[in-house]
Amino acid sequence: MLAREWVVVTDQRTGLGWLATQLWGERVLIASAVFVGFMMWLAGLHLGWVSFAVLLLVIAGLLRMERRAVEAGRRTMAVAPAAPIVEAAPPAADLTPISAVLGALDAPALLLSARETVKLQNRAAEAIFGPIPQGSDLAGRIRAPGILDMVRDAIGSGQPRETEHAERLPSETVYVVRIAPLAGPTTEPLWLLTFRDVSQARRIDRMRSDFIANASHELRTPLASLRGFIETLQGPARNDLKAHERFLAIMHEQATRMSRLVDDLLSLSRLELRSNLAPDQTVDLVPLLGHVRDSLQPLANDLGVEIALALPAHPVTVAGDRDELVEVFENLLENACKYGQEGKRVDVALSGGQGAPVELSVTDYGPGIPPEHVPRITERFYRVNVEASRSKKGTGLGLAIVKHILTRHKARLVVKSEVGKGTVFTVKF
Ligand code: ADP
């Protein structure tokens, strides 16, 4: 709304000054009359003084009427534009209740006018887009063309719209952005633009489909090999007894590999089902580690690795599930023997207990793990070297199972490795 101020200037001069002002104001009139009289004199119309004065008065009257008409027109023109300036805007809508609702939302939300300007913005939106002054254009703040097109389309059609938007920084985040008309609270048409973070759901979806793809790939390889040998035994090698012996041994190995994989998959799924149930037993780790070492001694002997145990003389108890903890230490010790075989020695050290934090470390002196692989080795099916893992009867699920069990036990796994020197896996309870 624009207001116009009218200033009235009053002339307070009197006497000669007033006469001079009046004559100056009528200068056009006087000049015109003198000009008309002169022209008549030239044309030979020698009028008497009285006739000449009457003629002058008529001309003066006509000119004055003309001037008034012009001035009236000018004033109309000057006043005319004032009407649209004092435009009757609807009373400002009270957005306080909407603002309170937006403030309570944890998802970013913006209230827009039908002219695509921002009327309100909640704190979550401010965290992403920075503070947006009321009345700013949405396009000046959100550069994503997908969102702007959607907003335009929704406002144009009067229908809700939805689109997906990905932010790369500071971390990859995927939003479902939705715009919908806000029915009711004000006479002015308003639109609510909301951002729903679906990154976590997308990550889980991707992990699930990767997992299924990996699991089927791992099972397909031994299955294909089994089928190939069965066809050979039924066909070309039907009567070759020596080939029977050799092929059956390989088939047994492949079937064992498949059952190991299925066992590990079942183990993972059981752990997932119990992941939010805290273990309710108390386990003394000293005898438990002795048992694990005994069960892996035959493998260590085959590989030529010596297992050295350093255990405290007192009991070291933790809240846990005995079978699951056996699975954790067997996995770590077996990996240390298999992958650290060339170091020929594996140290197992247990410390803490009796009030002190409990820590168990498994150290090998093998080739170590290159630093870029360390953060990923607890992912399902992740292997530094797939062939090396397969040749050592690995499934790629061992450390994923370890991580799951430790999470349920509120314990952490810390991996320190130096290429060419060896690796230390530490479990911190
Ligand atoms: P796998 O069944 O292949 O052994 P794991 O989940 O137990 O699967 O281990 C994942 C990968 O981590 C292994 O394939 C191996 O490449 C690497 N790894 C695990 N332990 C060690 C270790 N002590 N030294 C070197 N590499 C290791």
List the helices and strands and how they pair.
Blueprint: H1 15-25, H2 27-42, H3 49-79, H4 82-85, H5 96-104, E1 109-113, E2 118-121, H6 123-129, H7 145-157, E3 161-167, E4 173-182, E5 190-197, H8 199-234, H9 241-274, E6 282-284, H10 285-303, E7 306-310, E8 317-319, H11 322-339, E9 345-353, E10 356-364, H12 386-391, H13 398-408, E11 412-418, E12 422-428
Parallel strand pairs: 7-9
Antiparallel strand pairs: 1-2, 1-5, 3-4, 4-5, 6-8, 9-10, 10-12, 11-12
Describe this structure in words.
There is one protein chain. This protein is of the alpha+beta class and 429 residues long. The chain folds into four domains: 2-77, no CATH class; 98-197, PAS domain (Beta-Lactamase); 202-272, Helix Hairpins; 278-428, Heat Shock Protein 90, CATH 3.30.565.10. The chain has helices spanning 15-25, 27-42, 49-79, 82-85, 96-104, 123-129, 145-157, 199-234, 241-274, 285-303, 322-339, 386-391, 398-408, and strands at 109-113, 118-121, 161-167, 173-182, 190-197, 282-284, 306-310, 317-319, 345-353, 356-364, 412-418, 422-428. Strands 2-1-5-4-3 form a five-stranded antiparallel beta sheet, sandwiched between helices. Strands 7-9-10-12-11 form a five-stranded mixed beta sheet, with helices on one face. Strands 6-8 form a two-stranded antiparallel sheet. Helix 2 runs antiparallel to helix 3 (49-79), helix 8 (199-234) runs antiparallel to helix 9 and helix 11 (322-339) packs antiparallel against helix 13. It is elongated and about 155 Å long. The protein starts with 14 loop residues before the first helix and ends with a strand. The protein binds adenosine-5'-diphosphate. Adenosine-5'-diphosphate binds next to helix 11 and helix 13.
